[in-house]
Structures are given as C-alpha cells and as structure tokens.
Amino acid sequence: MSPRQACLECLQRDPPALLEAALWIAAEHDNQLQPAHVLSDLHSLQLQVSAGLPALPARELAQPLLRRLAELDFQENDEGVTRPRHALIHEVLRHRRGQPLPLALIALELAQRLDIPLQGVNFPGHFMLRVPGADHLLDPCGGRRLYTRDCRDQLYRQLGPGAELSAVHLQTADAHTMLQRLSRNLRLLHLQQDNLEAALKDAERTLQLGQPNLLDHLARADVYQKLDCPQGERYDLEHALLFCEEEGLRLQLSQRLRNLARAPAMH
C-alpha cells in the first residue's frame, strides 16, 4: 500500500486516525519515515502530558493540555521563515516547532487518547481548537482563549479591515478538511523552495481529500505549468472553468487554454 493509499485508509476508520494519516502524508516526502514507530513513541509524550494535567473533569482539561504542551516546548515556529518541516508532522514532533495546524493535530491526538473533548476549527490564517459547546476558541499555540473580539481581530489581520466574522469562519473541521488544509500548506511551502515534485504530490492530494474547487485546480495547473506538463495544466484549467463564475477570470483562463492549444507539441 502506498503512503497516499494508507493516508486515505486512515480516514475510513471510525473515528478517523487523523495523526496517523498526517504521518502518511509526511511519508510521501520522507521515504525513511515509519509512521508506526512515531505512533509508538508518542506514548511517552502522552505520559509526560498526562502527568502534568490538573485533577479536573475532562471537559475542563483542553486548555491545560495545550498549556502543558507549551511547557514541553511545543511552540509556533519563530524562525522568521516557514519551511516544510514546520508542517510535516514527524518533524514537528521531533523539533517541537511548527505551524498552528500540525500543533493542533498533535493536541487532538493526545486529547482523544486522554478522553478530553476537543475539536478543530478551520479559522482563516490560523487554525484553532474548541471544546464542544464552549463560547470561545483555543489557540493551539499555547492554549490562549479567544473570544468573539479576538477572533474578529485575527480575521482583520488575515483578510483586512473589511472582513466580517461569520459562522463559516467558526465551523468545526472534520478530518478530511484538516488534512486538505495541511496539504495546501505543504504545497505552498514546497513551491517556495522550488520543490515542484513535492508540490505536485501535495496538489494532487488536496484534490483527493475533499470537494475540489477553483483555487485547488488552478494551483495544480500552475505546478504543471512550472513542470512543462501542458496536458496536466490543460486538464486543471478546464476543470477550473467549471467552477469559475467571475467573467474576468473566465476570460483569462480561456485565453490560457487557447495559448496551450497553440503551443507546439513536445516530443
């Protein structure tokens, strides 16, 4: 079974094996990685976290769990430059530095093992967590509580002062959504390093993990363009057109397809 197939198989379980699936994503980029070994080693981290939690009902342990991880030096990347290792889950476990999403995936795995209720929230620009039914979100990077005003401020920083906070920004993220977001993050990070083969793997996986959309098809078309693969680029441009409702963009995509049709065949 390939790492991609193993990742998708993890999502068919009940409940989905989220962290294991993320490890299989990492295995696509590191053929030395053995997800089973990482999962086995995670037991020692579970014991460390559990030993530092207060004697409270499980519903009140989500924030202490995140604070405990911060005490154990699991922190948001502070290097100034974000690299693929800050999104690859085995590297985040090894170096204890990463983006909010992989830090959240680690917290969700530990919460599940310790029977602590916790959910992912697909907030723009900065992945969040939430205890079901709570009136606030939790920052996976340290456990800070985020109320409506904090969320609005975060949204302004990400999308600009004209953005309006709505229920869609606070939706619970299922396993497919989280791994699709992880794949998009990795695609961008690999592109920044001009690792086109890795970016193509991430772009393909993004389309497999959830409902395809305009931007995902355009992103893969751009990778194919950089790889001088007109057939793949054409496929994604044609599918992007099916989702496109903006007239100006439709004209641009149509022109790009015409340019591809006029390009000399490669032999």
UniProtKB/TrEMBL annotation:
This is Tetratricopeptide repeat protein. It comes from the Bacteria. The keyword Kinase does not apply. The lineage of its organism: Bacteria, Pseudomonadati, Pseudomonadota, Gammaproteobacteria, Pseudomonadales. Residues 37-183 form the Protein SirB1 N-terminal domain. Residues 179-206 form a coiled coil. It holds the Pfam family Transglut_core2. InterPro entries: SirB1_N. Belongs to the UPF0162 family. PANTHER family: F-BOX ONLY PROTEIN 21, SI:DKEY-261L7.2. Keywords: Coiled coil.
